[in-house]
Amino acid sequence: MLQGIAARITELYIADLSQLLQLSVDAPDVYAGTAALARLVIIAGTEPQLTLTRARYEIALQAGRDPALRTTIQAIADLLHRLVGEVVTHWQPAGDPLPKRIVEQQTNAMLTFIDGVLMSFVLGRPAVHDEAELDQLLQALLTGIETSYLAGAEQAPARPQ
């Protein structure tokens, strides 16, 4: 039964995430960047989607003890990682991208932050209240990691070639 529930949750999440990815291609001015991601998170924290988000967290906890279940819901994590990675990549300044490892750190930090925000919705104690607030926090997170990297790069001694 849990396997069937996990499969259905995965199917629904993949459909939603795939739709957002497609919208970002079709209408990049409206559905691109951190604002679109913030919109998706706020929707996931609001009924009727909140019920699905709660179910996803319940299944994720169970999947920690059930490898077959973990495999089923891994598709959600993979697609979410791809989506956030694309948002972070497109967020980078044109012509002067950060090294891939820094972009990956930004992606992982955003995923971790988003999971925390979603958990706050699941627990009934929202950490954010609207898309604009969440968008501002997501951009601040990306900027903070970039600033930290650039400050570290300036202080680091030059490496011999």
From TrEMBL:
Residues 34-143 form the Tetracyclin repressor-like C-terminal group domain. It holds the Pfam family TetR_C_31. InterPro entries: Tet_transcr_reg_TetR-rel_C_sf, TetR_C_31. Gene3D superfamilies: Tetracycline Repressor, domain 2. This is TetR family transcriptional regulator.
